[in-house]
Amino acid sequence: MRILFITSTRLGDAVISTGLLDHLLRRYPQARFTIVCGPVAAGLFAHMPRRDRTIIMAKRSYDMHWVDLWRQCVGTRWDMCVDLRGSVIPYLLRVSIRRGMRGGRRPGPRVGHIAQVLRLSPPPMPVVWTSAAERDAAQALLPDGQGPWVALAPTANWAGKVWPAARFVAFWHDFVARHGPARPVILYGPGDTERQMAHGVISALGDARDTGGGLSISQVAAVLQRCMLFVGNDSGLMHLSAAAGIPTLGLFGPSRVDEYAPCGRSVAHVVAPGPAGRADMRDLGVSSVVDAALRLLAGASKAG
């Protein structure tokens, strides 16, 4: 059985879609998968079981990226195509079962929208796939006996979603004073922009472990699984943390918390005060984030 799975170009949406993929892996144990995604999300699927290939679809003018995708897929007879982009591609290929997601914004969590493609309720939660080598490397980076480790993710893909670096630093000092000893791990994406956003936190926390922004997505997932807590802006890293299964606290301002709050077995979020869509992250107080983090950890401890 051959399944073509077309997911998002953005990391966060691609992470959320892994729950649906995990369902298909369990539902069709003999199936082989081809994944279609954007360049940023490609590493997410590196260690996915029964993946034949990943087709990286980089956007081109005049929608020519869809033509390129059709050319790469038209020679195969597909048993199923799951298209989360709502494109015409499934109807231009030889496909036995077509399942697609309609465009347009709808109320409710994104994970629920994706689950409705296969009429699943409750929606399957996102997952991560890592290798033994990546898990060993993560243990070397974050050794036992030097933690517990807490992941801080002070970056995002636009400035309006970023809690100021000084607030992350103040959060850390207050959190450690109330929780007890811990070590911060600073996570951010590749490139100078991300590094500059993270620099204020790294430089202010002398014992912070700087991950450097050069890890692959699955390597970051393995690092996250070594942490007792994640605190970060609404970003792909936030969704990756929730999928990795660690207590994840997402910080929201003007972005759509109703749709993109973290989803997983131990998650929470804090929203800056203000009108929906116009809240200012600078108005999100440190004490409210510390309180939420401590509640999340307490709840995870009871559940464990």
| Shape estimate | globular
Number of helices: 10
**What order do the SSEs take from the amino end to the carboxyl end, as H and E?**
EHEEHEEHHEHEHEHEHEHEH
Structural domain count: 2
- Describe the sheet with the most strands: 6 strands, parallel
Helix content: 25-40%
Radius of gyration: 20 Å
* Largest sheet strand order: 8-7-6-9-10-11
Content-based structural category: alpha/beta
CATH fold title of the largest domain? Rossmann fold
Q: Outline the low-pLDDT stretches.
A: none
| CATH C-level class of the largest domain | Alpha Beta
Characterise this structure.
With 304 residues, the protein is an alpha/beta fold. The protein has helices spanning 11-27, 64-73, 110-115, 132-141, 165-179, 192-204, 217-224, 236-244, 257-260, 286-303, and strands at 2-6, 32-37, 51-56, 77-83, 94-100, 149-153, 183-186, 209-210, 229-233, 248-252, 267-271. It folds into two domains: 2-118, Glycogen Phosphorylase B (Rossmann fold, 3-Layer(aba) Sandwich); 136-303, 3-Layer(aba) Sandwich (Rossmann fold). The protein has ten helices and eleven strands. It has a six-stranded parallel β-sheet, sandwiched between helices. The protein has a five-stranded parallel β-sheet with strand order 3-2-1-4-5, with no helix packed on it. α6 (192-204) links the parallel β7 and β8.
